[in-house]
Specification:
Elements (H helix, E strand, L loop, with lengths): L7 E6 L3 H12 L4 E5 L5 H6 L1 H20 L13 H25 L3 E4 L2 E3 L4 E4 L2 E10 L3 E3 L13 H4 L8 E5 L3 H12 L3 E5 L11 H14 L2 E3 L4 E6 L5 E5 L4 E4 L1 E4 L3 E3 L32 E3 L10 H15 L14 E3 L5 E5 L2 H7 L3 E8 L2 H6 L5 E8 L5 E7 L3 H13 L4 H5 L17
Helix pairs in contact: 1-8, 3-4, 3-6
The protein binds flavin-adenine dinucleotide and nicotinamide-adenine-dinucleotide.
């Protein structure tokens, strides 16, 4: 790892959540670092993921807030939603954040190499017509949307394009039943777009607690989102008037103005030269790494979505940090994958940490489940018939809380703090021992009987 033998101590491929953190921290540890990026600094989360998505979720929620405002005495006239205003403000915020990420890299003396990187050997990378050598290569190239293969798939869009729509479609069909499908179904529905979600199985958000999933489904349907289960697209045709005819395997035909794929994300390793350099990939193309993020080629490491472990930004960031501290900070650090909290920013949002009820029943001897099924005070006055559901899963033998799951307003904000307690191994009795803050929704957590 000597920069005089190679151009850099570290060459990072991909300036997203994991790559930027790794590059910055390695440079702070004294390494000579370069980072290659083929698109924009910030990666998926900043440019076309978490950040613009969450801003759209905020924008969409005004539809309900403005409706509810009347019951709180506000008279609102001439309300109208203007998509280009929100879109352009969101894209401007993305530009600002991408600029901040660039500044952070520059202020840490990380050299930015613009262009697509291809690995040429255990220490070699080509970016455009530039060949560079590095003691260590970190692959942090993320993932890309998976697009199902059927005639007419090219008429569909993915989360890459959705933030740039010229105008809102009157009707959208979204395929998939996971995070992106449910988040964008909510966003479009709040904007008044007629949404149909097509799911190949009979369940949405499979990793979440069943009761929460059922609650989201019930609320989403009540809000007007249509769900088609056990359904698959056979072909899509585009009519002369631009309308898409989505032909289903069961013979039915859906008409829509837009089709969005939200069917998972595949690791970005295609044409990257990794296998030629001795890096093992799995059948989906994910880089296989050990607990220290090291691949089968000793000088090549990988973090984030490209390893297909947990496709979440905070996990990619931790992996990038652990890599840099271990390899360049001489402080071995491993990411702890236990109790990773996660949230779906649907309307309403849901969030969870630890074991679901069924996982707990399958793995523990005896389980106690506490639930609070309530109508938030704000919804009551607003006349909004939408109930929240909080669940706590407790190991009966030890009284330890092994899982917490919530759907309702601000669930992700509240669950972040509950996750600290669950990870710390707190007991139900310790929650009960804490006095409530009244009136809040979160007080339900210390009042469950
Ligand atoms: C719509 C959407 C919403 C999301 N919402 C959330 C959320 O709310 N919360 C959450 O935690 N996670 C969310 N995620 C997931 C999150 O964005 C990813 O887990 C995270 O960005 C992964 O970081 P990464 O560093 O592995 O890869 P990325 O952030 O994807 O960065 C990889 C970078 O590598 C670049 N690259 C790829 N190949 C090359 C190459 N050969 N040469 C040069 N550069 C290359 C890419 O252009 C990209 O900039 C969302 C994802 C999507 C798509
Ligand atoms: N709030 C968040 O933290 C957040 C938000 C968005 C995305 N993400 C991350 O990004 C990842 C990708 O999101 P996603 O929603 O695309 O994936 P996902 O894994 O959440 O859901 C994919 C869905 O597509 C379906 N599917 C897969 N292949 C299919 C096919 N060939 N035909 C029809 N359906 C198919 C699956 O059954 C599943 O319902 C997520 O797994 C998550 O890790 C996180």
């Amino acid at each position: 790892m000597n920069a005089s033998e190679h151009s850099y101590d570290l060459l990072v491929i991909g300036a997203g959540s994991g790559g930027v953190r790794a590059a910055r921290v390695a440079a702070a540890h004294g390494a000579k670092v370069a980072i290659a990026e083929e698109h924009r600094i910030g990666g998926t989360c900043v440019i076309r993921g978490c950040v613009p998505k969450k801003l759209l979720v905020y924008g969409a929620h005004f539809a309900e807030d403005l409706e509810d405002a009347r019951r709180f005495g506000w008279e609102l006239q001439g309300m109208k939603f203007d998509w280009p205003i929100l879109r352009d403000n969101v894209l401007a915020e993305v530009d600002r954040l991408s600029g901040l990420y660039t500044q952070t890299l520059e202020s840490h003396q990380v050299e930015i190499l613009s262009g697509r990187a291809v690995v040429t050997g255990a220490h070699g990378v080509r970016i455009g017509d530039r060949e560079v050598q590095a003691g260590i290569i970190l692959v942090a190239s993320g993932a890309r949307p998976h697009i199902p293969d059927f005639p007419g798939y090219e008429y569909g869009i993915t989360s890459n394009e959705v933030f740039h729509l010229e105008r809102l479609p009157a009707r959208i069909v979204i395929t998939g039943g996971g995070y992106i499908a449910n988040e964008f179904a909510g966003v479009f529905n709040e904007f008044g777009v007629r949404v149909t979600l097509i799911n190949r199985s009979d369940q949405i958000l499979r990793a979440y607690d069943q009761q929460l999933r059922e609650r989201l489904l019930q609320i989403s349907m009540a809000k007007g989102i249509q769900f088609l289960f056990n359904a698959a697209i056979e072909r899509v045709d585009k009519r002369a008037d631009g309308v898409l005819e989505i032909c289903m395997r069961d013979g039915s035909v859906l008409e829509a103005d837009a089709l969005m794929f939200a069917t998972g994300r595949l690791p970005n390793t295609e044409g990257l030269g990794l296998q030629e350099a001795g890096v093992d990939l799995d059948e989906q193309g994910a880089v296989q790494v050990d607990l220290d993020n090291r691949s089968s080629c000793p000088s090549i490491y990988a973090v984030g979505d490209v390893t297909n472990r947990v496709q979440l930004t905070p996990v990619a960031i931790r992996e990038g940090q652990a890599f840099a501290d271990t390899v360049f900070g001489r402080t071995p650090v491993r990411v702890d994958y236990r109790c990773i909290p996660a949230a779906v920013f649907s309307h309403p949002p849901l969030a969870g940490v630890g074991l679901t009820e069924s996982q707990a029943r399958n793995t523990l001897g005896s389980v106690k489940v506490y639930t609070s099924n309530f109508r938030p005070m704000k919804n009551t006055l607003a006349g909004r018939n939408e109930r929240a559901l909080y669940k706590m899963i407790v190991d009966a033998a030890t009284d330890r809380i092994v899982g917490a799951h919530m759907i309702g307003p601000e669930a992700p904000e509240i669950l972040q703090m509950v996750a600290v307690a669950v990870k710390a191994g707190m007991t139900k009795a310790q929650f009960d021992d804490c006095v409530a803050i009244h009136p809040t929704m979160a007080e339900e957590l210390v009042l469950m009987k």
